[in-house]
Design goal:
It is a single chain. The protein is rod-shaped and about 125 Å long. It has one helix and no strands. The chain has one domain. By secondary structure, the protein is mostly helical.
Amino acid sequence: MDLPQILLLTAIFVISIILTIIGVQIIFLLRDARETLKKADNLLSDIGYLSNNLLRTSSGLSHLASGLQSGMQVVELVSKLLSSKKK
């Protein structure tokens, strides 16, 4: 074999090894990215669950406040009626 053929085969062999190593690294990188995306998805679903619970709780509190306000109006009306009967 001539020197150019030896150099060409050596270069092809080295490039093949480098590309194989790069391919394996890309596979590991994609695996890590998939795990990170799964964790992010779980985190976002937990945040969605918490926000739904907070929305339900705030809705319940607003209903409670409106109920208390209506109750206070009834108490004021009854007290006005009682005070007008005493006069």
